[in-house]
């Protein structure tokens, strides 16, 4: 078998990509996952809202388990960045940043996710998902009744602070980008009416406990330490990794998220699917997982039905499907 030819190449080996790989691996298709090895799921130290993990699970652990599970199903992995996606008559060519790959696939699953924008602050990344959060739907519960510091930018941070009043009355909002992004009067009035402490200040550090690494507060450029029990970040301007998609004419919303068919997760380009945070949804792990499976089911239908590929694959591998 020419190993550079695949039934499906999955771009992005985070949550959506891995779940898609497991589902497609169980159909015994030839699957390659190309992942550059970062992503939101690598950042989150503890997911608290996942079925079966009441004590939480880190993104790294879920990814490790997912990859093992997919490899047992003969899914191949390479660590690399996809830099080019070209559509030919009935297949796709993929280039990577290593430049030494010429990879061909009958179908493609885009699962490149997005990147949250936040400043590089000592101490911040090691708290993400554990005691500092990004998503009130995922982790509002974790700040219930706790002194919470929102680190953010302009109206985006103000809006997060206001949202968190559902959970706690003790909120301080620090506008880190106060020099370029001010908070509009409309938001300022709401912050005041909700008794949210609001300050402009340049963050220099997230202060953590020596004992357990938990969030203790933040330090500002003027030397002040603002104490808190939990943190949230809200800087806005997240980067959706849909450049490759847009290059081949895939339809996206103005905010760069890929539009897919709600039933199949296929994009407007025949043969290309999208799943996870790169698509239009609530940017949650379980949704990314579900979409990975959903896309895989319809990729399988395409491989079996329209193109007769599965038949030739079955013949090559002498697999008897009933
Ligand atoms: C700090 C934090 C906490 C979170 N907490 C929760 C929570 O508690 N509950 C919850 O439900 N959700 C939570 N989320 C959201 C959750 O992590 C995402 O919804 C989920 O990771 C989306 O999965 P994905 O596969 O779409 O993207 P990702 O997991 O980000 O995976 C995308 C992958 O694609 C790769 N990639 C991108 N571009 C390329 C390329 N060109 N070539 C090759 N590879 C590429 C990236 O390196 C990455 O590995 C949290 C997110 C963050 C950042």
Report on the architecture of this protein.
- There is one protein chain.
- This protein has 322 residues and is an alpha/beta fold.
- It has 2 domains: 5-116 and 238-314, FAD/NAD(P)-binding domain (3-Layer(bba) Sandwich), CATH 3.50.50; 132-234, FAD/NAD(P)-binding domain (3-Layer(bba) Sandwich).
- Helices cover 26% and strands 24% of the residues.
- It has 9 helices and 17 strands.
- The chain has helices at 15-25, 40-43, 59-71, 136-139, 154-163, 185-193, 243-247, 285-304, 309-317; strands at 5-11, 31-35, 76-79, 82-87, 92-96, 103-110, 114-115, 132-133, 148-152, 171-175, 197-200, 203-208, 215-220, 225-227, 230-234, 239-240, 272-274.
- Strands 1, 2, 3, 4, 5, 6 and 17 form a 7-stranded mixed β-sheet that branches.
- A hairpin with a 6-residue loop joins strand 5 (92-96) and strand 6.
- Helix 1 runs parallel beside helix 3, helix 1 packs parallel to helix 8 and helix 5 (154-163) runs parallel beside helix 6.
């Amino acid at each position: 078998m020419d190993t550079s030819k695949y039934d499906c190449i999955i771009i992005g080996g985070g949550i959506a990509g891995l779940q898609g790989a497991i589902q497609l691996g169980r159909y015994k298709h030839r699957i390659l996952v190309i992942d550059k090895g970062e992503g939101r799921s690598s950042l989150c130290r503890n997911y608290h809202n996942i079925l079966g993990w009441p004590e939480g699970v880190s993104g790294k652990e879920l990814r490790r388990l997912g990859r093992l599970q997919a490899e047992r199903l003969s899914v191949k992995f390479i660590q690399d960045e996809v830099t080019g996606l070209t559509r030919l008559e009935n297949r796709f060519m993929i280039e990577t940043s290593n430049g030494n790959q010429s990879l061909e696939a009958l179908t493609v699953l885009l699962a490149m996710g997005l990147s949250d924008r936040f400043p590089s602050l000592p101490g911040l990344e090691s708290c993400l998902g554990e005691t500092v959060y990004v998503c009130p739907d995922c982790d509002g519960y974790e700040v219930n009744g706790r002194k919470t510091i929102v680190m953010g930018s302009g109206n985006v941070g103000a809006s997060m602070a206001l949202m968190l009043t559902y959970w706690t009355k003790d909120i301080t909002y620090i506008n880190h980008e106060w020099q370029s992004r001010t908070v509009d009067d409309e938001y300022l009035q709401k912050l005041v009416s909700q008794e949210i402490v609001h300050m402009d200040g340049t963050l220099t550090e997230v202060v953590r406990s020596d004992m357990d690494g938990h969030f203790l507060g933040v330090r500002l450029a003027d030397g002040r330490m603002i104490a808190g029990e939990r943190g949230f970040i809200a800087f806005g301007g997240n980067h959706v990794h849909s450049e490759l998609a847009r290059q081949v004419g895939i339809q996206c919303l103005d905010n760069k998220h890929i539009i897919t068919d709600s039933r199949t997760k296929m994009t407007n380009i025949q043969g290309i699917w999208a799943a996870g945070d790169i698509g239009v949804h609530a940017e949650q792990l379980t949704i990314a997982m579900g979409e990975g499976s959903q896309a895989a089911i319809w990729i399988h239908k395409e491989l079996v039905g329209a193109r007769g590929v599965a038949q030739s694959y079955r013949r090559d591998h002498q697999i008897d499907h009933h």
